[in-house]
Amino acid sequence: MSGFVSSRFEIGETAATIASDSKHIPRATEAITRTRDEIERQIARDPFFLTTFEPYDRRRATSEVTRRMCEASFSARVGPMATVAGTIAQTALEAMIVDGCDHGWVDNGGDVALSLRKPTVVEVFCEPGSKNAFGFEVGPTDGIIGICSSSGRLGHSISLGRADVSVAIAESAILADAFATSMCNGVGKRADLSTCFEPLANIDGFIGGLVVLDGDVAMTGRVPKIIDLEHNPDKVTTHSRMSSASYTGTGLRTREAGQEVRP
């Protein structure tokens, strides 16, 4: 029996929520495992791929996956591992679409790839202890889009900035992950809210962005309609080994607009 489900999947450092018709879930988990393997092979061949904060020469990529990471990181002027979560989400959703999925998403710890035939709400949360959040009304989409987040205050990922949260919307989750990192890196003080989007101007694939710092908000491009939400920390995709308050307080989550998603 098939039906729309929301399924959690963990492997290594990856924790993902996969939402689609249940028959497509195995394709996503296979793609996540395969993508991780390809990234690990790249790192084994050249550990610099793991540690650099600068773009990595795509000619040194060992697979199509790592080449796409290199290209996105070059566009955003960040290191390739700044795209890793979005890359895993993207390839998993692509595998589901090849399998026939026409509505679903993969949320890899706050970096989300979506392909939607009906509206969905994506929550953004950046204030630990608060019951409030905001969200984007997204969809339907024309193919895959990425909505990815970065934070200089919360979570376990490295950031060179101090934004409460930055959110990028792009034509793929690989690009969105890179753009979110770039935007967050560029915000150290309030004045930076007026300049943090400049490096992304006119880059192919960038749709829009939002950055929050100490309650101040800056936006650029085409940002979906924003709505107020009540935060539900149980719906945030977190790793079972990374469940501290500083981590679970941030991220993106998705739900069907106007209806319950079955677990």
Overview of the structural elements:
- This protein is α+β, with helices and mostly antiparallel strands and 263 residues long.
- The chain has a single domain (4-256), classed as T-fold.
- 27% of the residues lie in helices and 29% in strands.
- It has helices at 25-45, 48-51, 64-76, 84-98, 173-185, 245-248, and strands at residues 4-11, 14-21, 104-107, 111-115, 120-125, 132-138, 145-150, 165-170, 206-213, 216-221, 225-230, 251-256.
- The strands form two sheets. It has an eight-stranded antiparallel β-sheet. Strands 11-6-5-12 form a four-stranded antiparallel β-sheet, with no helix packed on it.
- A hairpin with a 6-residue loop joins strand 5 (120-125) and strand 6 (132-138).
- Helix 1 (25-45) crosses helix 4.
- The longest helix has 21 residues, at 25-45.
- The radius of gyration is 17 Å and the shape is globular.
- The model is unreliable at 244-263 (pLDDT under 50).
